[in-house]
Amino acid sequence: MPIKGEYLGRAHEGDRERARGVDTIDAALLHDIGHEVATLSALVAAVRGEGGFDTAAAERLELVEREIDLLLDLVRGGSVPAGAPDGDLVDLGDLLYDVVTGRDVACPGTVVLCPGPRMLAETDRQGLRRLVSNLVDNAARAAGPSGRVQVELCGRTHPVIRVLDDGPGPTRGPVGSRGMGLAIVRSLADRLGADVTLRPRRGGGAVAEVVLRGRDTRTPRPTGREALA
Fold this sequence. Notes:
Elements: H1 13-20, H2 27-50, H3 55-75, E1 89-91, H4 92-106, E2 110-113, E3 118-122, H5 125-143, E4 148-154, E5 160-165, H6 179-192, E6 195-200, E7 206-211, E8 216-219
Parallel strand pairs: 2-4
Antiparallel strand pairs: 1-3, 3-8, 4-5, 5-7, 6-7
Helix pairs in contact: 1-6, 2-3, 3-4, 4-5, 5-6
């Protein structure tokens, strides 16, 4: 589904052009990248084997391993092809937890996951993770080092993921800070059958909202691993 919202038509043209080439990356280049990422994975495993880490260091090493696994899945064709989702039943809270914990370390400012219901959706795990990661990255860049990005999970008929920031608002940040990421989001949303909107946030900033149209179930438990506050 196309991204909706009056501000998205002004995305930087250069960013849109670069995003159009994402699906045409040379297969040989992907093959070589896969080898390099596999080597990185082996090096991280060797470091973990040495032990002696405190709790914080061990948690960050686990985040590195998860990001490497994601890269390997992407290179090996793990992202959803054009068409319907692959039918995985995904725990959305756990997926958001993984995205938020990694981005809170890597991005400027603060990234938090709000408590919410446990929700399952039939969708492509890696495709949705890429979509949300791009939205969070864009929001964090717009909010800046002193800003805050808030991720929420809610919805009644369908799961809804919201990414809120306290930056300058849609199209008011640095040129290129959102354009390419939003072009990628547009492509992923179309493949996943999701609706994505971007609008100004009351009081300043922006709100990106993703509505998933697959089947879902809910239980009254916090999102993720008891949620980040």
